[in-house]
Automatic annotation (TrEMBL), chain A:
GO terms for molecular function: ABC-type sulfate transporter activity. One of its GO terms (cellular component) is plasma membrane. It comes from Peribacillus asahii. The gene is cysW. NCBIfam families: 3a0106s02 (TIGR00969), permease_CysW (TIGR02140). Part of the ABC transporter complex CysAWTP (TC 3.A.1.6.1) involved in sulfate/thiosulfate import. Probably responsible for the translocation of the substrate across the membrane. This is Sulfate transport system permease protein CysW.
UniProtKB/TrEMBL annotation, chain B:
Residues 65-265 form the ABC transmembrane type-1 domain. Keywords: Membrane, Sulfate transport, Transmembrane, Transmembrane helix, Transport. It comes from the Bacteria. It comes from Peribacillus asahii. The chain crosses the membrane at residues 21-42, 67-91, 103-126, 138-158, 195-224, 244-265. It is found in: Membrane. PROSITE patterns: ABC_TM1 (PS50928). The complex is composed of two ATP-binding proteins (CysA), two transmembrane proteins (CysT and CysW) and a solute-binding protein (CysP). Belongs to the binding-protein-dependent transport system permease family. CysTW subfamily. This is Sulfate transport system permease protein CysT.
């Protein structure tokens, strides 16, 4: 496990007896430190985004997010997410099925390989695709001859995003399906259901919350990925700029209100992600 | 008397799809992870050894290692201290709005790094809401980098320590108290040792993430060579100058460090799991 925290139970306050309870003063101080730290590091930046976004008024805000370049960035980001997330979801289910339902040699190595993208700098995740498909890359000449573009175009952005979000669904499903074992599937198969039917009617209902949880995290990262996409995109305005790259350009041009307007859209998505994530945790606990 | 060796009866697995699922998985990771990553090592071999050493020990590059390592370490330590306190408070003390606060801890996982980067820069710039209260510069110095990395790594320590505290057996604490230990002694001698593996895991995860982090750092760092230029940024700069060999050489160094960290994280978890199995 690197860079990923699996689905957990919603925290509840533990009841502690008086002997193992700290004095009131210490409790208050610790609570204050924790809340002050979170306010300074999490709440304040979030508030800044929305205040700066609306600093120059509602019209500037609307103009910023309806600018053709902004709209094309939003469209591109959505397109990338629509391709990336389902692919990694199918991979995640396949990988978890192979790893948890069967015994084979090298399983731990396979799990480590699936973990790799979490341990690697996003910049390197972009670099590797330049080395493969760039002008001087391994397939560079071949691609040029056939007039195909991968790097500095949509396929490159999709590949880099797939790379950085590859572990999310698999990482979520492996411990879950490991804990569930194979008994229910075996029962279904023994009773004559086909393999696919068993997966659909037995396995899928068991893993739906874990799957959804992985999807949500994968989706959030795919929308927001910056470093890897920045390397392979080529920053062509209105063409290969995703939302985070568009924010960077606006910010570097000192169009702060516009940059934060687009950033506020992404922040709303992030907040929705957190809410859905908590709902799933609650659901998983209560079913 | 000869005893026939007991043949271990292999349990026949009736679950279908082994070939398909494993084949698909292997193909997917080979094309999308192994092949791309191997390119880094293959491309490095096109350089000769002295060129390689020269590139990775260049003065400016070495300064970036020190900066990346130092700031990631500082952010990791901050996260260990405050992350443990936050996890403790979330598990042990009731306060209003706790569900919301708990959910908010994951914000750095959900918020795009570029968005976090520009927000933190605006806050900690000399004229910013927070920056104006300090006589010294925060944004555009290593201090700013530490703040961005602390933000990015915050959930790791909290989320690894929290479940351990939740499952902690309260009877042990009561026993410790009844044997005459005061609260601080109980914490240091009874509770903390149980938390150490989780804290170490959280620290390594946050540290590994911080070493490679790019999006949130580039805005707040100021990116001055020798002073506030992190290693991922050097790779980026070399790529923009079409110095692919140089970028790849430095990427090799970072990859080796990442593999080492991944290995250490797995070791910590392996040792911890073993300990649990034996006790």
């Amino acid at each position: 496990m690197a860079g990923h925290i699996p689905l957990q139970q919603t925290p509840t306050t533990i009841k502690v007896t008086t002997v193992s309870q700290e004095p009131k003063a210490i409790r208050w101080t610790l609570t204050f430190i924790a809340l002050a730290f979170l306010a300074l590091f999490l709440v304040l930046p979030l508030v800044t985004i929305f205040i700066t976004a609306f600093q120059k008024g509602w019209e500037t805000y609307v103009a910023a997010i309806t600018h053709p370049d902004a709209l094309s960035a939003i469209k591109l980001t959505l397109l990338v997410v629509l391709i990336t997330v389902p692919l990694n979801a199918i991979f995640g289910v396949m990988a978890a099925w192979a790893i948890t339902k069967f015994q084979f040699k090298g399983k731990n190595i396979l799990i480590t390989i699936i973990d790799l993208p979490f341990a690697i700098s996003p910049v390197i995740a972009g670099l590797v695709f330049i080395l493969l498909f760039g002008a001087q890359g391994l397939f560079g000449e071949w691609l040029f001859e056939h007039d195909l573009k991968i790097v500095f175009a949509l396929p490159g952005i999709v590949l880099a995003t797939i790379f950085v979000t590859l572990p999310f669904v698999a990482r979520e499903l492996i411990p879950l399906m490991q804990a569930q074992g194979t008994a229910e599937e075996e029962a279904s198969l023994t009773l004559g259901a086909s393999g696919f039917k068993t997966f659909l009617l037995v396995t899928l209902p068991n893993i739906k919350w874990g799957l959804l949880y992985g999807l949500i995290l994968c989706n959030a990262r795919a929308i927001g990925e910056f470093g890897a996409v920045s390397v392979v995109s080529g920053h062509i305005r209105g063409m290969t700029n995703t939302m985070p790259l568009h924010i960077e350009i606006l910010y570097n041009e000192y169009q702060f209100s516009a940059a934060f307007a687009v950033a506020s859209l992404m922040s709303v998505l992030a907040i929705i992600t957190l809410i859905v994530k908590n709902l799933i945790e609650w659901k998983a606990k209560h079913t | 008397m000869n005893i026939l060796p007991v043949r271990k009866r292999k349990r026949r697995n009736i679950i279908p799809g082994f070939g398909l699922s494993l084949g698909y998985t292997m193909l997917y990771v080979s094309i999308l992870v192994l092949l791309p990553l191997s390119m880094v090592f293959i491309n490095t071999t096109t350089m000769n050894w002295s060129e390689f050493i020269e590139t990775i020990t260049d003065e400016r590059v070495v300064a970036s290692y020190k900066l990346s390592f130092g700031t990631a370490l500082a952010a990791g330590i901050l996260n260990v201290i405050f992350g443990t306190i936050i996890a403790w408070v979330l598990v042990r003390y009731p306060f209003p709005g706790k569900r919301i606060v708990d959910g908010l801890v994951d914000l750095p996982f959900a918020l795009p790094t570029a968005v976090a980067g520009i927000a933190l820069t605006t806050l900690y710039a000399p004229q910013g809401w927070v920056g104006q209260f300090f006589d010294f510069k925060i944004a555009f110095t290593p201090l700013g980098i530490i703040i961005a990395l602390t933000f990015i790594g915050l959930p790791f320590v909290v989320r690894t320590v929290q479940p351990v505290l939740q499952n902690f057996n309260g009877e042990v604490e009561e026993a410790s108290a009844s044997l005459g230990a005061n609260r601080l002694q109980t914490f240091i001698k009874v509770i903390l040792p149980e938390l150490i593996p989780a804290i170490l895991t959280g620290f390594s995860l946050a540290f590994a993430r911080a070493l490679g982090e790019y999006g949130s750092v580039v805005f707040i760092a100021g990116n001055m060579p020798m002073k506030t230029e992190i290693t991922p940024l050097i790779i980026m700069t070399k790529l923009e100058q079409y110095d692919y060999a140089g970028a790849t050489a430095i990427a090799t160094v970072m990859l080796v460090v990442s593999f080492l960290l991944l290995f250490i994280i797995n070791m910590i978890q392996w040792v911890t799991n073993r300990k649990f199995l034996h006790s």
